[in-house]
């Protein structure tokens, strides 16, 4: 197959009257970032080579020489003494040129029935598959940290907020379990993306397939793909798998940003609900009380670069005529950057959650301030006195105003005082006015009752942890 | 459950000294766009009501009155004579207020054990599920149109381009089948998103669940959900399903933009490969030869608004503390707009593809210009003379320069001329120099050979069409 | 000039075998949104007509008939009884068709030496210019509200936060004046964008200019433009002015989102620094203490749709070959939406700021908690004892730990206690430990001292308010 | 001033029980990218130091030692033997720690009356100012290349396209001059952004200003700023200048993407209007006729990363409470990347344009195909026969159909043939039917007539080139 994409000077430069402009050497090569794909590139070449031998397209001697040469190259790169050259543009040409140096003419037979177009698509898919799996494991560890804290605080009462205003009491464990759900969906998206991406482009060649009697099933299988890609033109011009991953990564970043925002809030003196560990905060030499939540802020701020990476690749692909165009070289840096960003964000968050110290007293006090059990009072009026909910609301409004006027909590109001507003109230009402009771009564599936939270913890361990 | 989100003036305004500012009436209500959810809102209320009756929380008389009232409201809205009021802010309050007018006090019992927070989340999920299914069917129709054209043109040779330069001959059918793969992945993403979104928030109430003995499984089942959402706080503060859909929609828009770009190119005199039908072009009263590809251009241009909708909701959710915040009201307009945009784009594209007239002669002529079978010549040298591929490339380069110098096609070179460059060439070489032969020989799986394309068409019908 | 863009069926449809597809009627017309440009369209036509008469291209009788007809149309639209037709696609064709009905054949002479391409570019520039000026006035009103509150609270001490942690005391007035600067820059960007956009495309015609002896200077002047656009192809294919406005709008939205976030925080019980007025909050019928900061949340959430609009138009223009393409029709909806969004956001914010009640006691108490004057102590050590700053930091760190251990504020430590750490400290140190003094001493230009804030208020009134 | 932002372990770590987590060392330091600001950081420190001496805050001996030490550090970094340490987090701490090593205790006095918050804001503004100026010069060079080509091709006729369909003939020079306008606006935006950003944050200190008697005017002047920033809190929490630059860069990238798209089209065999030079294309060893327009494609594709950078910083700043937050550290990488990207894009484009070979024959032939002078015929009917424009359109439509039917150009129709449609036509009409004449007649200001283009070239040299 031809080098459909730009080939390095040594290979195609002969008839060009002048060499590339200086600025071309600045804009064109990808070796500075695609060297990261070296292991995948070599694995792909070895699988391709083995298939060529099996199909009789390459003799086994050449095949053995190539495989050995590739192994040596992998070792060189791992050892850090591989002579990368920008003039050779990309990882594929660097490896192939080195192979020629190491084993001579046989190296030239490796590129039979393939091109750099299918080769790079294969490399990125292999890399992304491994990266997705690593990331999945890292998110699982984050879920584990959240679940452990949730179990510890299954009954720790805190104010449940809507509009950042206290609404109803919940438990800290219940709050954290909401994030376990979010990150569970993130893992589902990664798995779906991985499954959809797990098709092998190798053998699509430049764009049209090949006349060599290759066995694409074999190559696909050897590399752990589920199947070969069904259309050769699609195979070399598709970057959906990059974008779908970046979409999933954007949601991970968004979820992290919400939790990070909450940590910043909870750690501020306005809330003072938690203390972040030394390991994830920075201090000031002059204000020793200060623990700046740097890690949480960085995680929150890095959301932007993940969204940016998504937009970068979506923009790049917009309106691009088939098949391969050099524009597509711009897929890798945003992909690598976003993958690194969500990975470090997930791992830093895992550490912060695991190390978190919760001030249960402060949480409880905040839950009792406000009139967070007002809804419970209304529900009681509905259930015990048969009031329509809207009317119960009205009664509760008057009672809360009464308490507010007296400067007391609802639980501190006398029965007489409440009866002036609704004479049928009896002392059963006190059952629902304390925050612990309010929490304990919310036993509907998915509700915040400590027993529910413990059950949710158990189920989550089964659903999410290996 | 309380109206955790802003409730309309009549309900909560009593103690507010002044009414809302004039600008508040401009920024706050959502009824102008969320009325689109009326059918889902009513379906959700009916399922909730039936569950309350089944659980003994509501007596069956009230339940029947509520159900009948809701049916009447649905009929009113369908007929267009429902009295929407902006003062009632949203679809939920509009329906509930009307229900009170229609059936009196019993209406107040419907809002037991729920809030607008879980209600709106349920409505949007129901709407999105139906919309996804509609869209899936529309994309299927587009695939059908592509497959039909692909079958028709399984052997129509055209230049396969990389870098918008001719690389190797392919067939028009093969080209179109690449898009069938793209849209197939899009449908996969919609299906995955739909599955992940198909959990029922109802019963999460304001954020904490409820003390009423509700049966969330029953409500979920009644509304066609796979299960109730597992965590009440997540249930009311999650908008992943909106973003995941917008991500899938962005990829659909991107794929459409590529095909639209190709149609614009192919219809331009520079290429003149296809004629778009009257139905999808516009003319000029003065230049009757002109067929402006307006529909294709609009589809391409609308990519921006879908990407924009994705960024809108990702930005909105960034760094948002739990649980519900009014910011989330901003999810619906981008969702509706993006759904409408990809739907109209898919349907317009289906029509354009179905109506497309292909100029097979022009395609063939373009395929023969250039030296698109040079790769085939190189492959022949490898296969028949045993040259390493890189060396074969070199030989072919010289032969192409020779043809270029003489101003002829490769197939027009004499054997003698070629033998001056590589003496072992025999007349078997002409087998591979004609574009039809080049195409026919690419029989590797996924390759462009007409037989392959026909097989791909058959498989695609099975994989994608119902 | 020709109708380079798609013309309506009646005008170009004759030779088209079939009418537009049904979906085409859905995707193609712009009249639903571009009718908003009617006043600009008519003003542009009147100026064009007057120029044609002045240049002798049109006789004055026809000119008078056209002008009268256009006035009548403007009146009809204003009255709401103009018969808009979707079949006529856009505002230009609707007006022109109606003109023909009203005045007959002469209507056909108006379109001499212009096309819809330069016409729509002119309309949007006129609209945007007026909108920018309106918005500038609205932001000025917001600045006025901020400045008034800043003056009122020039000396109201509050904690100055970095990382959402108390760092040094500042004043509430100083904090608000930071936003006055931000919005001042926003106005500067709007003014620059307006100036750059204020060139007249009229007379560029379809794309190439015209052979009619038109006077573009005259038309430009009549419409208040600074000059005619210098290149006819640029004039019809440029949408920079839309994007530059959307960029400026994105920064406005970002600034609003920061202030909105602070209002949400300050209004939450965790901070309780301010009370938002009834006019901009919503309540709950059951929790009368609740004032949900809906307006602030909506402003914050709407940031997304402004960023989305920016991305929409940037994406649409990416890689678009010259000159006009139908894609560009997609510029108007994002523009209108973003303009409306920042306008309502600015106005709602103005109301919220004007109505804001500040709890000075709560602010002061928060400023005294923490050890916000620790930096002042370090500065004192540098200034009075000559310690290098880094060493002073070290000493202060030990003193703060001492106070922390005793559970007192720095100002409550005895001189003896401090001298155990640094013997040279004298009682002059107390001058700097109280928050009022710390604030008052920061008199460097731009610093937080109340006198500075008052001076900044005076300067800001001169710089920003008319 | 205190190290309000996270300070390195050695400085604030004393009371932290445990060191930073391993992942913290991965997420927190910025030295890997902010070392790029070293020259600006040192220049800022020297100006600050000189001001402290002038104000008597620092004695002149210490001042001299600090200045000498900073010079030595600058030299070390330039030579490449500065010992950067990630443990010291950022460029500021690296420089300061090294200064302490070089000159001892006096180093500790440099940080008087400033903090890293105002320091980093100053550094970035200085860097961006210089970068903007470099970029302005690079865009000027691109304009010069375009103007030179435009002059050369002021009369080279080509098809003027709308909807990628031929509309009216224009000249290649006129087409290129449209881009000169676009890039002229880009330079205007850079200049406006530079002017607005040119305020000095130094002396804002951590956030509140300082009690030291500093002279901010002096520091500002010494660093070439127009004035000190007016509000200390705004000074440390403002990143508008980054975003405004990224907005301007996005428009530059968009303009480049349009020109790049056109080059890709023009270089494709479908158009074959231009030949790109060897210096900016890549070849294929096997298809020597192939000149892949890699540089143009990369420029087009890189648009995405510039848009992505804009979204990254907009997202990062959304909803951020004042003042400094660690999130803001995320401003630098997108800024650097976007600046580098547009710079390399502008320079590569300059080379491509300068080297461009235009096939004037191919352009002329394409202009004559189609009926691009149909509009001229209509204008002639209006001007010479007094037909209303809409009626003239109708007549021309019939004439074009006639020519189409005969398969000839308009200029080839006999007078008799035309008179059958409109009897008053005389042979003056042929004046307007040839493409050169059509072009030459469009002499309205900004029109495509060669004389106009030459005048526009002369004006552009005066307006844009130094």
Question: Can you describe this structure?
Answer:
Four copies of one chain form a homotetramer. Helix content of chain A is 61%, strand content 5%. The first copy, chain A, is mostly helical. Chains A and D meet through helix 2, helix 12 and helix 13 of A and helix 2, helix 12 and helix 13 of D.
**Broad shape of chain A:** elongated
Low-confidence stretches of chain A: 1-17
The number of helical runs of chain A is 19
Which value, in Å, is the CA radius of gyration of chain A?
31 Å
Beta-strand proportion of chain A: under 5%
Strand order, sheet with most strands of chain A:
1-2
User: What string, H for helix and E for strand, traces the elements of chain A in order?
Assistant: HHHHHHHEEHEHEHHEHHEHHHHHH
Amino-to-carboxy terminus distance of chain A: 44 Å
State the helicity of chain A in percent bands. Answer: 55-70%
Describe what is shown at a glance:
Four copies of one chain form a homotetramer. By secondary structure, the first copy, chain A, is mainly alpha-helical. Helix content of chain A is 61%, strand content 5%.
Q: What topology emerges from the helices and strands here?
A:
Four copies of one chain form a homotetramer.
Chain A: H1 9-12, H2 22-27, H3 31-34, H4 38-54, H5 60-79, H6 91-103, H7 116-152, E1 157-162, E2 165-171, H8 172-197, E3 199-200, H9 216-222, E4 227-228, H10 232-237, H11 240-267, E5 274-275, H12 294-317, H13 332-355, E6 357-358, H14 360-368, H15 374-385, H16 389-406, H17 415-421, H18 435-441, H19 450-464
Helix pairs in contact in A: 4-5, 4-7, 4-9, 5-6, 7-8, 7-13, 7-19, 8-11, 8-19, 11-12, 11-13, 12-13, 15-16
């Amino acid at each position: 197959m031809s080098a459909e994409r730009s080939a390095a000077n040594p290979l195609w430069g002969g008839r060009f009257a002048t060499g590339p402009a200086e600025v071309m050497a600045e804009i064109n090569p990808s070796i500075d970032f695609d060297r990261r794909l070296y292991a995948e590139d070599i694995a792909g070449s070895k699988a391709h080579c083995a298939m060529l031998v099996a199909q009789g397209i390459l003799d086994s001697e050449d095949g053995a020489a190539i495989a050995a040469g590739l192994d040596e190259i992998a070792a060189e790169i791992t050892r850090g003494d591989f002579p990368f050259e920008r003039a050779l543009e990309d990882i594929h040409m660097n490896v192939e040129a080195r192979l020629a140096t190491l084993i001579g003419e046989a190296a030239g037979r490796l590129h039979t029935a393939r091109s750099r177009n299918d080769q790079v698509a294969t490399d990125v898919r292999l890399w992304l598959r491994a990266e997705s799996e690593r990331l999945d494991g890292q998110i699982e560890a984050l879920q584990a940290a959240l679940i452990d804290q949730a179990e510890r605080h299954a009954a720790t009462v805190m104010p449940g907020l809507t509009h950042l205003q206290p609404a109803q009491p919940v438990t800290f464990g219940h709050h954290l379990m909401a994030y376990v759900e979010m990150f569970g969906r993130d893992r589902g998206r990664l798995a779906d993306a991985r499954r959809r991406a797990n098709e092998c482009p190798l053998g699509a060649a430049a764009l049209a397939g090949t006349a060599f009697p290759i066995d694409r099933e074999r190559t696909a299988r050897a590399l752990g793909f589920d199947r070969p890609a069904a259309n050769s033109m699609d195979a070399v011009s598709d970057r959906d798998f990059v974008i779908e991953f970046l979409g999933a990564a954007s949601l991970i970043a968004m979820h992290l940003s919400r939790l990070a925002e909450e940590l910043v809030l909870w750690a501020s003196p306005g809330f003072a609900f938690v203390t972040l560990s030394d390991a994830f905060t920075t201090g000031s030499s002059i204000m020793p009380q200060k623990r700046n939540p740097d890690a949480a802020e960085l995680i929150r701020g890095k959301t932007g670069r993940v969204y940016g990476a998504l937009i970068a690749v979506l923009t790049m692909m917009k309106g691009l005529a088939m098949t391969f165009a050099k524009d597509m070289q711009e897929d890798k840096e945003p992909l690598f950057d976003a993958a690194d960003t969500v990975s470090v964000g997930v791992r830093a968050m895992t550490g912060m959650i695991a190390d978190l110290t919760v001030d249960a007293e402060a949480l409880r006090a905040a839950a009792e301030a406000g009139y967070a059990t007002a809804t419970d009072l209304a529900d009681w009026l509905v259930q015990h006195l048969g009031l329509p909910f809207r009317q119960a609301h009205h009664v509760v409004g008057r009672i809360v105003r009464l308490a507010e006027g007296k400067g007391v909590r609802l639980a501190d109001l006398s029965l007489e005082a409440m009866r002036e507003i609704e004479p049928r109230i009896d002392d059963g009402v006190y059952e629902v006015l304390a925050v612990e009771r309010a929490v304990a009564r919310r036993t509907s599936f998915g509700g915040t009752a400590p027993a529910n939270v413990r059950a949710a913890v158990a189920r989550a361990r089964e659903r999410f942890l290996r």
